[in-house]
Design goal:
The chain has about 290 residues and is an all-alpha fold. The protein contains twelve helices and no strands. It has one domain: Farnesyl Diphosphate Synthase. It is about 70% helix and about 0% strand. The longest helix is centred in the N-terminal third of the chain and has 29 residues.
Amino acid sequence: MASFAQWREGARPRTLPNAIAPVIAGTGAAAWLGAAVWWKALLALVVALALIIGVNYANDYSDGIRGTDDDRTGPVRLVGSKLASPRAVLTAAIISLSIGALAGLALALVSAPWLLAVGAACIAGAWLYTGGSKPYGYAGFGEIAVFVFFGLVAVLGTQYTQALRVDWVGGALAVGVGALSSAVLVANNLRDIATDKPAGKITLAVRLGDARTRALFALLLTLAGLITLALMRATPWCAAGLIATPLALRALAPVRSGQGGPALIPVLRDTGLTMLVWSAIEAAALAWA
């Protein structure tokens, strides 16, 4: 039986910035429009955290029963390591996704009922990433999905539920967060190229190969930097987002130097921290402008 610490590790806490950052950014975008609503922001945060924990457990379950995690260099996987039964991990995924669905239902009903369709698409995307007969995560579309769901949808959805409209500032923040969030998955899949390919998991990293995947990671970090400069059109205070640059460079260093395997695990942490710090600074700048 898995311990509490192992269940916590199975939830992949290093990915939580992917859920927290877009809510912070979207709330900052709503504040820019003079329409931030703290309790709606908290509801959005519950949705985002529940969905990312749910998708992590769902991935653990789906990859585990397929045998993809039998030879793994990354963080512990509960099913693949036989620390927990597939049924227990699937139950954890369903509970997490259900919590996200209930919080999303409440948020949609007090904002715009049509958002229920968006929420349903998010839950379907969470499950079909590695679940189902043809998971899109096994076909190289994972990074695109992360960009859409944890970038565009999460940031603009958070802004819309509070301000009931979106603008170019929210769009810019959504692209920046989406780029950094995708970079986390790029680093993860770069680390796993050697094990994913034999297991039949043809991620974007497997398709691109080692060298081009490293170049893509650097490109995504650069895109977030360019978004910072674009946001200065809204207020010069957004230049403060460049404070996150040292974190980005720390994340980039092992990738540029050609390191692989376990040496790339800190890259996920540092990229997530970059995204979190960048989002918080930009949101504060927009709220105070």
